[in-house]
Design a protein that fits this description.
globular, alpha+beta, two-stranded parallel ribbon, 7 strands, five-stranded antiparallel sheet, 24% strand
Length: 172
C-alpha cells in the first residue's frame, strides 16, 4: 500500500481459558497460560448471578493473558499452527478481528503434555488495528474511527492470508 496509515497490524492477541466454578481447574489453567505465554495471566471474574450454575458476582471463573507487539505475532504463528493454519470466514467479525479455539494445548508446538494439568483447551482472540486507532482510546478529544479507516472483514482475511499463509475453509 502506498499510504502507511492504511497498513494493518496486530494490536493484541488474547488467550482465554474458562473453567467455571472449579478453583483447582483455574489454578491448572493459570499454570498452562503462563507456560504458553511466559507471562503472568490474570483471573477473570463474573459480573452476573446464575443460580443454576452456582455462579455469583465476583467469582473467579477463568483466566486470560494478553500479548502485544512482536511477542503477539510470534505466539500467533504457533497458535495458528495448532489449528493447521485453517480459519473460517465466520471466525472474523465486521470490525476485522477474529477468534478461534484450540481443543487441546498439546497441539501447540513447543508445549509438552503435563500429567498434572490434564487436557485443557483455550480460546484465542486477535485484535487488528491501523495507525491512528488510538483516537478511540485517548483521554482528550476521544472520537470514533472514521468508516473509511476501519478494517473490514475482507481486509482482515486478506491480511491474515498474506502475513501467516492461512487457508480459508468454507463454512459448513
Amino acid at each position: 500500500m502506498s499510504n502507511i496509515m492504511q497498513n494493518i497490524n496486530i494490536e493484541k492477541v488474547t488467550l482465554n481459558i474458562g473453567v467455571g466454578n472449579e478453583p483447582d481447574k483455574l489454578e491448572k489453567a493459570m499454570i498452562l497460560l503462563e507456560k504458553i505465554t511466559n507471562s503472568k495471566p490474570k483471573k477473570t471474574f463474573t459480573k452476573k448471578r446464575i443460580p443454576t450454575w452456582n455462579i455469583r458476582p465476583g467469582l473467579a471463573i477463568g483466566c486470560k493473558a494478553t500479548m502485544r507487539g512482536k511477542k503477539a505475532e510470534l505466539i500467533l504463528k504457533k497458535l495458528l499452527y495448532a489449528v493447521n493454519n485453517n480459519l473460517k470466514a465466520s471466525q472474523f467479525d465486521d470490525k476485522g478481528n477474529f477468534s478461534f479455539g484450540i481443543k487441546e494445548y498439546i497441539d501447540i508446538p513447543d508445549v509438552k503434555y503435563e500429567v498434572n494439568l490434564g487436557i485443557i483447551g483455550l480460546e484465542v482472540a486477535v485484535t487488528l488495528q491501523r495507525p491512528g486507532f488510538r483516537i478511540k482510546r485517548r483521554r482528550v478529544k476521544q472520537t470514533n474511527i472514521p468508516r473509511k479507516h476501519q478494517i473490514s472483514k475482507q481486509q482482515a482475511i486478506d491480511f491474515i492470508k498474506e502475513r501467516f499463509n492461512i487457508n480459508m475453509e468454507e463454512n459448513k
